[in-house]
Amino acid sequence: MNSIVLIFGVFLGGAILTYLAHKLSNILSSAFFVLTIFTATVLFYLKVETGDVFSFSLNGLHLEWGITSFSWIFSLIVLGLGTMAAVYSISFMKGKERLGYYYFNFILGIFSMMGILLSRDLVSFFIFWEIMTWSSYMIVVYEGRSVQKIGIKYILFSAMGAYAMLMAIVIIYSQMQSVMIEDLIYSFSSFSISYQIWLPILLLTGFGVKAAMMPLHVWAPGAYSHAPMAYTSVFSGALSKMGVYGMVLVFSTLISQLPEHTIIREVVAWLGGITAVMGTLWAITQDDAKKLLAYSSVAQLGYIITGVAIGTELAMLSAIFLSVLHALFKGTLFMVVGAIEKQTGTTNLTEVTGLIRKMPWTFIAALMSIIALAGIPPLGGFVGKWMLYESLIGSDHYILVILIFFASTAGFLYCYKFLFGFFLGQEEKEWDHVKEAPASMVVPMLILSFFSFLLGTFPGLILKPIDQGMQSLGYVPTEGHFWGMSVLFNEWGNAVVLQPILYAIMAVFLFFLVFLTLKGLKGTRYVTTKDISSSGEVPGEFENLSYKQNFFQPFLRAVEPVMKRQIDKYYTGIGNGIEAFFNYVRRVYSGNGQTYAIYVIIFLVILLLFKNNLFG
Amino acid sequence: MDQISFDISIVEYGFFASAILVILVGLYGALVKKSLIKIVIGLSILESGVNLLLITIGYIQGGTAPVFSPQLLKDMPLTLENIKALGNEMVDPVPQALVLTAIVIGFGVTAVALSLVIRLYRHHHTLVIDEIKNLKW
Amino acid sequence: MKKILVLLLLAVFGIYLADVLFSLEFGKQFFTDGVKDFYLTKGPLDLKVSNTITAIIVNFRGFDTLGEVTVLFLATTAMGGILYKKRHKVGARSVLFPSSQIVMAGSKILFPAIILLGIYVFVHGHLTPGGGFQGGTIIATGFLLMLLAYQDYTVSHKVLTIVESLAGITFVVIGLMGLIKGSTFLENFMPVGTLNNLFSGGLIPIIYIVVGFKVGAELTGLIYTALHEKD
Amino acid sequence: METKTLYKKLTSVFLNWLFLFIVWNAFTSSFQAQEVITGLIISFLLALFTSRFFDCCSLRVLHPVSLFYSIVYVFVFLIALIRSNFDMAKRVLSPSLPINPGIVKFKSKLQSDFAKMMLANSITLTPGTLSVDLIEDTLYVHWIDVKTDDPEKVHAEIAQQFENILLKIFAE
Amino acid sequence: MKEVLEIIGALFVLLGGIFLFLGGLGIVRMPDAYNRIQAGTKATTLGGMSLILGVGLMETSWLIKAVVIIIFIAFSNPISSHALARANYKRKNFPYLKNTKGVDAYKDAYLNENKEEQS
Amino acid sequence: MVGSPILFVAVPLLAAFLIPLFGFIWKELVRIVPGIVLLYLLILSVSLYIQVLQDGTIVEQIGGWAPPWGINLVFSPFTGLLTTLMLFLAFIIWLYSYRFKNVDFEPSKKYFILLLMLVTGSIGIVLTGDIFNQFVFIEIMSISGYALTAFYTGRDSAEASFKYLIMGSLSSMFLLLAIILIYSQLGTLNMADIASKAHLMKPEFRVLALVFFIVGMGIEAEIFPLNGWAPDAYSQAPGPIGAAFSGIVVKAGIYSIIRVTFTLFDVEGTMQFLVLMGMITLVVAEMAAIKQDKIKRMLAYSSIGQMGLVLVAFGIGTEEGVFAALFLMVNHALVKPLLFLSASYLVFNSTEKSIRELNGLGKYLPLTSFLFALGAIAIVGMPPLSGFWAKWSMLTAAANSNMILIIGLVLLVSVVEIVYYFRVVNRIYFFKKEEDVEPKKPTINAMVSMIVLGILIVTIGFYPDLITSYLHEASESLLDKGKYIQDVLSAGQSIIQ
Amino acid sequence: MIQIIIYVTFGFMVLGIIFSAWRIMKGPTAADRILALDTLTTISVSGMVLLAYVFNRFIYLDVALIYGVLGFIGVLVIARYLEGAL
Amino acid sequence: MIIYLIFLFVLLALMVGAAIYSIMQKDLLYAVIGTGVISLVLSILFFILQAPDVALTEAAIGVALTTIIFIITIRNTVRYEDEHDRKENK
Asked: Cβ of D100 under 8 Å from any chain E Cβ?
């Protein structure tokens, strides 16, 4: 039996088994769930090699599954994050309803992502893509909150993207009577020029939706924040990377063949940049941690898209590197929020405070990830962003650099808000009962944050495979001059030049933190943020005095003009307009049988009048 | 007295025209009249027009009904030639057979339609079609 | 407004239809090798049926007739289904009061005659105009006469159903017999006799008798159902 | 009693059969053996089914006297019919429409329904009269030219000639 | 013989035609429904009968069937016109009476009947 | 010789005539017999179909007269496929309605007779090779349809039925007019004969006949301006009948219009016209569907839309296009009945039958809801269910004929479809249940029938090759007009000589 | 001679038909219309017999016969409805 | 000769006229009578067109059966086309 089929079998069998086991007992189901993902992961890394190809034909199409060294990188994201999230899920989901349903869709999600990575042809790619869409949709609407709005928005955009992609695939198939990606790469140059322009655009639309690219991102915040956090970590960490994966494919193989590819590249890069800025700005305004992280995800994906779109070797490298890292830290952060939600019951930043002592491990994981997210050395984010800046400057995109730099700087604000809001600040009686999350939740977070630390320190660990993967995409082998590509790396390439300095900074920072904390522990009287006796004035009864309230008021006032024009509104407007139009159109079904009969005669008369035009 | 030749070549288009007119009148009734029964009447008139048209198509000048009655055969031997000669003077039997079927079917449909009208009246207490549109859009 | 629109539409329709149909010449045959000649020779010669229309309806295009019978059957069934009410009023009469004695006495004597006329029509379906449908209709009309004349005249629904079903079954079974005895459905497997005799035409009179019974029972049932529909 | 009903039934079946057989032969109007035999069978079967309605007359109608009077009746009737038509033609064609309509009534002596019906029909087809209703044995007649409204006189005027013959035919 | 019969038949046919016409004229000219029924029934019955008989005479082999039709007509036409007259009365269309002096003997019976129904 | 195609018509008729008699013996027989008949016919159909694939088209003559003169039934790979499909669905629907609610009371006899006749009429339309015979079968189908639509006494079903009846009468008028025109020119009614002689017709006759056929059959096939009856009828009929309408009756309508345009007339421009009409139908139907608040009405509009898609696929005109159209038909025939069947249990006890009343039923009727969701996913063409492959074939066929605009439009409309289907699915699973709606558990037989459909959908989704070879055979046989004519007309020759 | 007589008869019948049609149009009561219909029926039956003679087909007489019988029942139906019995 | 033609034309005109009459007539009973006239005339026309079978069928179905069904429907519903007329005539 082919190993790929075996893995898929494990996934599918596991999914069904889990679902059925749920009927017996939740524990059994959970066990099956974790076991399935673990087994698949282990099997994948043990059994599957890049040469493995499983080919078959279906409905007259030649389809192939097999892994390339490029998709292998993404499989790391998917399986790594997936495994962790799976372990995390068990505790997180304890006590919730319809576990079987959740597990089933979770496994299907992981399965479909692996399927996407393993497909070597467009049709199975599309099939897995759609499985991914609806399985994730199922989980997005799992809790049923404002599902009619969020869920429909998500499925609507996904469908539009997917159908754009399907259209491209169909055209490709009609052009070359094959759906293999390899064939596409070889025969793309023989397509007519309009196809050469339109096909990548269609494909990019499809991928752009999943990667939450600028005008297509509106589904993302809602969907990210409405799914259970255990899944959101996968959702934002791995699932959105599928879009990136596709974009990388398109840019590196198709668009690079276009004679005038720069325009598309520029446009997409700018879209990415704008996405980053807007995502950041929106993230700052959020008071809900989930929303905040969701917008932050959008912003981060903006960087990655920019990198992919620029498409020089360094940019691509940085983009993929950022993808991996984003999976790690954003996965962790969502897990953190999940843990807090689990323990406190809310994720509102203005309500929850001072959890640092109650949930120290969670705090550590959050801290590490936030640092990585903000791009502060020595963690991975810094390396990635550095490389991105470098590549942008290298390809003369100065304004973009400014844009992205602005975004990442502004990003500090929400990073701070997040960290401060949850963990620092005054403690309140309300949260006295809060305890550290269970081990099975903490451990995955810690493992993931450890990895983001590791990659920041030794980026070579992941950069090498990425480099190999890029070679399989047709980039020149960089073995020789790879380490010279960025000024950041040392000569061995496995660490960063600025390492020692950064460590020093880090150490001082940590020291102060610990010092302050210890000092704070002694003899401080804690006043809750709602204690109105602390001041002479008499504020409103339940007004929250925490200065997390209206945290960045001045800043927000400054950026308000930009923020006001939410794309969401336009979409809603268009949607309403369309629905109103549809509502108008359906009035042709007037309910009067006679009117219908008159339609028949009108139709007949039209046919009679135009019969010579219609029928030769 | 022998055959009076029933020469109706002058009315060549009379049958066609009146069949078409009847069809149109029936259609008008079905499309414009408000009463359900009127609509059904219109439909049955329509039917009649179509049937007349079909028979008119099958008519052959000077032909007789395609029935080989003894009176017609007049003790002729039953040979292929004789039969063919007789047959050539007969109208086309096929449209007649079709119309027979069509009439019976039309009657069936009318019966069903009228029972529906009764049901509708029982339910809505009116026969005006404009008022019977609970199902729309 | 609607009227004018409809009139306009119908005018266009009529003009087009007339335009095409007027290019036909009235009373002429417009084709050279239609199926008509075949029927007109095979009917009297092979089937020994003098009424070619009957031959077409029952034999050449017998399948249509089966369908037609089914349509009537369905119309009856449909009427029953559509007009079905949960509770029939006890003692509901089809006719409110009996007609005058004159009509009653007249219908007594006309009724057997009309039924006989119906039977005559469908028994002689292959010799004279008419046949199963017409005969059946006449029979149903005879029952209608009785229903109109007498207030308390009832037709047993059960008997009607049985007659109808048996007739239908016979029709199909005769067809299937053709499949078994010959090679095709509704194929004639009986001796055809001589032209213009009562006993001629093989299966055709038999089928027409069956059709006559079936149509008679169906239409009677239909009228009966309809007459009993009263609020 | 039972034998009597059985007898009645048998007569009605027989008469019915006869009637139907005659009608059948009239319908076919060809006296081939096949037709006649089929007619016998069919009319017998049908007579069995419809005999319950066929109670118009007894076996007496087959008596020669009855048959004779039947023929007489037909002629009387035809003459009356023709007379009535000319009468009607006169009325219709004369420009002044000489009519004086009204409804009169009289009692009939006839017993059986069938006979009464025959009488009513005859009256309808005879000059200037139209039977409107028959309740028990009172016949209401629309008379286009009312001469009297006394039932006896009306009877004599309108119905006498038919009723006498019918009485003889049905022997009542 | 045949010729004579044909001529007689033809005359009957003509007579029938005339009476049919008269029937039509009658129903047009008469003042109320009863009189029209009188005119229509009588004239058309005789007209139809004589026409059909005429045809039967012209073509002697048709005679039997023609007689059957005649009998049917003669039997059914009066019944239908009677039913019609009765129905018309029951719809309260009382006969046209010249100068309101005419007799309407049926009215009492009709009213009695209605009373019974009401009670 | 396994059997003869005539049995597909004769046996149900026999059964329909027998059922009233059975009613006197034992009431239960009334229900059982149709099932036995349908099962028998299904088996027969499958075996005949296999035989046909090996030995070629079976042309069954009736009355022993060769095709131009007698009526004939043509069991070709194409018609055989449709027949088998219809019979399968009919059996499923029978199984489902075996103990469905209102069928249980008195007129159940009539219900089963009418259902049987609905199926027979549809099969007759597909099998017959004679244009007038087809008309007769259309009438059989329509009359059963009218009666079944009005089967529930309580609702507005009579209104729906009456609309259907008006349209149906117009349809039959146009069909008759078309038949008149054809007969006046060719003197024949046999389809193959007409097809072989069509060039002899005067062009204006041909075009007018075609127009009448399109209007007449378009009403049955639910082309856009002619389909006003459809949503009402679908939504007011009992659940299983809605399924039968969408699964069986429409297929017959589409078949008839296809037979006319593909085989009978070879008028230029017909194909483009089909594409145009299909497109308009699709778009308008989906527009109307999105705002529906009655579940069955929504399904009905969706069904119309799907038929539009089928017409577009047929209109592409290539072998691939026809293949895709058939695939779409098969898919629709499996999925839409599933949706109707499950939906009618979901709204079983509600009075309004509105989507609002589906709220939260996923918890109470898990399997039914799941099957509904499965159907929803399949109908919008999401992989890996059967709908995707159908849509894929359609799109590739369009792409191969360079109809890029069509692809775009179809996909855009699919998005609309997704929106309204997922709205419903969302309600089923993620909303709070309405207090007053008491869900009713499906009976065992209903469950089985739905599950069978579900399994088929999934199976075809994962392994479309299961049916594609048959579909290819069928599409080839539809497109090969010459072979059809030859098959039919030569079949008679042997008997004549 | 006979031909002329038949022509003339047809002419009379046409007049009869026109009169009856006029009465149907004009009314005023339902009974008048039905009466006219009845008259029309009788005229039609006669016309059919005459046409049968013109066409010289014996079998056509059946049609006239049946028409006569059924027309009577049609009239009876409406009469009974007018009576209020239906 | 010309009389035949007049006869025919009168029949055709009567048919069309009856059709228009029964469509335009407000009283449904009269409309039904109109359909009766149509099928009567149609029957003669079929007869003239040498289709006795069809004439027979049209007579059998058109005259008695269709009438009775229409009448039954009118009995069970209303006799007049619109409510206004009904009030006036009652």
From this structure: yes
